[in-house]
Amino acid sequence: MRNDHPASPDHPASPGPAATAAAVLDRVGGPANVTSVAHCMTRLRLSLADPAAADEAALRALPGVVGVVADGPAWQIVLGPGVVDKVTAEVTARITAGQPGANGTEPGDGTGLPKATELRDGTDVREVLRRRNATPLKTALRRVANVFVPLIPALIGCGILSGVNGLLLNTGWLPGLTPALSAIASAFLALIAAFVGVNAAKEFGGTPVLGGAAAAVVVYPGVAKVTVSGTHLAPGQGGVLGALAAALLATRVEKWVRGRVPGALDVLLTPTLTVLVSGLVTLYGLMYAAGAVAAAIGTAADWLLATAGAAAGLLLGGLFLPLVMLGLHQALIPIHTTLIEQQGYTVLLPLLAMAGAGQVGAALAVYVRLRHDVSHDSLRTTIRSALPAGLLGVGEPLIYGVSLPLGRPFLTACAGGAAGGGFVGFFAMLGTKVGATAIGPSGWALFPLLTGNRGPAVALAVYAGGLLTGYAVGFTATYLFGFPRRPRVAAPA
Q: Is residue 341 a contact partner of residue 451, using CB atoms and an 8 Å limit?
């Protein structure tokens, strides 16, 4: 595997967002080959009509591109925080402007494919690629992630404000400000169901505002007056899972109705029937079912940490780096969000964040082992450049630039993550839970969001101990086992 280096004598500094966007589009088959654009904290996420038209090696070679994850039609270009949002805006603007496709593709059909797209037996190449690369599980995880990833910035901001407000309440400072901060920090979570509904309808082909209207039923205070099987519903029952189910149902109902009503009545009947049918089903079925699932998630998380916290931490901390590498970690967002809604924090994120600590420890060991090897100066430059981001929880530069290309250090980094996760999980078995009030950050950046059943101070101490354990084990394992043993030279006879 190749190495992906930031600025060095052999790898010039990253160009501006406009130049990067143009270069990325040229190497993924042109604007016409891109069917959707999104981004998370570090990655530009593109869906390609024809993945074969993209040049992965050329993408990796671009200055500023830290790594590339290609999974069928879904391509993730790792650019890093503070850069990805600007590049995404430029990419979106170029696609909207309808620039011609690259590599001889046709811009007019919206696929980016050449005119000749049939195999000898008459099969459409596009259908072959879609069947080969879009498995049901991968597609489902990707689309659910697309619903929740845009919510992360608000979750981070509100989570930090919630932590600040808690600190002010505990110290008694600024009593006139805390009610306002509480309202600001809590409003988004109180209405998150509506945002989930809007994003879900948009992702699955419905009208966003109708998806939001159906999902808003879940959190409307008036549902407390609705009785189902002799029991009053509770506002928020089912949480984001109920909101997601309501929006998906609304999308299906909308499509069914729109295809059957006369055009003259579409503007009246389609939205009315969509909201009515999906709302009733949500009230009399989905809220109860989703509430049961959400309660089961919370109960399972508590039971797992209380009875097998160390083992669970070892497993989650050790496997999270491969999930990040594949981009599948976003599928955990609904679980995190459900736990935050129920308990005020997610106990899983601090365990998973230990993977980054193992990665940092492994990178430091590589730096030390190669300190006298001038042939690896560019690799040491990469480590120096990527370590600050790694300490703050952005692990992709170290994954794609250091440990993964070297092979063994990736495995020893996972060992460090497992050790850190086991440390935090062990304290959970002793009754000390550590949680995060929001999702997104990890590493040192997670400290402002930490809390737990024994207060923020204890949570901070346990989490810091986990980080130190991850650093130490990742460093030691990499230093001792992360490099091939050199063959012994036989002594002269």
A: no
CA dihedral of residues 278, 280, 281, 284 (deg, nearest 10): 160
From the list 273, 205, 215, the residue with the least C-alpha distance to 247 is: 215
Phi, psi for residue 433 in degrees, rounded to 5 = -95, 140
Q: Which two tokens stand for residue 128?
A: 């072959």
Known catalytic residue: 414? no
Handedness of CA 394, 397, 400, 406 (dihedral sign): negative
**So what's the pLDDT on residue 396?**
79
Residue 12 gets which letter from DSSP? Answer: P
Chain centre to alpha carbon of residue 271? 32
pLDDT tens string 173-218: 999 999 999 999 999 989 999 999 999 999 999 999 999 999 999 9
| pLDDT tens per residue across span 268-292 | 999 999 999 999 999 999 999 999 9
Supply the pTM of this predicted model: 0.77
Query: 488: which residues sit within 8 A by CB, 6+ positions away?
Result: none
As a 3-state breakdown, the chain gives helix, strand, coil percent values, each rounded to 5, of 65, 10, 25
Cα–Cα distance for residue pair 46/342, rounded to 1 Å: 33
CB 57 within 8 A of CB 28: no
Number of helices (H), then strands (E), in the chain = 19, 8
Given the residues 28, 40, 215, 247, select the one marked as catalytic: 40
User: What does the alpha-carbon distance between residue 336 and residue 440 come to, in Å, rounded to a whole number?
Assistant: 10
Of the candidates 38, 50, 65, 37, the one whose C-alpha atom is nearest the C-alpha of residue 102 is 50
Contacts of residue 79, defined as CB under 8 A and 6 or more positions apart, other chains included, come to 20, 42, 43, 44, 64, 65, 66, 87
3-state class of 6 per DSSP?
coil
